[in-house]
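A.,

Following up on our hallway conversation. Structure tokens first:
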């Protein structure tokens, strides 16, 4: 009698095989999707880092120039060749903002990041005005 009970549990039924195969296919599909999403996030982070480095380098150069040279460079501002290789359709723009707090440079960089892409901006102060307190 004990021999019969063991024989029943030694084999694998077709239902068990189908359930295991279904679970395996589901997990593989999920992992594939997750791998592609992770790859897209890594690519996006790399692009963002390249953009930040480009803006920082451009701002460092602009802040080292005098006012006349800075204005001329801002009018002819363009992305570097290495940036154009790294980021598709990169466009850089800059402006000088003067207000009651002083003068600052604002650089923005945009590239093809899909429908939800917003430009990356960086600001550098050129001259600050001290406020007199009453």
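Then the amino acids I'd put at each of the 134 positions:
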């Amino acid at each position: 009698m004990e021999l019969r009970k063991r024989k029943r549990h030694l084999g694998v039924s077709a239902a068990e095989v189908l359930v295991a195969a279904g679970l395996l296919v589901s997990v593989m599909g999920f992992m594939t999707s997750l791998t592609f999403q992770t790859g897209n996030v890594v690519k996006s982070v790399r692009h963002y880092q390249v953009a930040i480095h480009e803006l920082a380098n451009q701002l460092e150069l602009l802040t080292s120039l005098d006012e006349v040279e800075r204005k001329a460079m801002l009018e002819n501002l363009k992305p570097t060749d290495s940036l154009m290789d790294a980021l598709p359709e990169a466009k850089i723009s800059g402006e000088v903002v003067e207000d009651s707090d002083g003068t600052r440079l604002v650089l923005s960089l945009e590239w093809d990041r899909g429908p939800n892409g917003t430009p990356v901006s960086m600001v550098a102060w050129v001259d600050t005005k001290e406020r007199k307190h009453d």
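The longest strand covers residues 91-99. Curious whether your intuition agrees with the design.

B.
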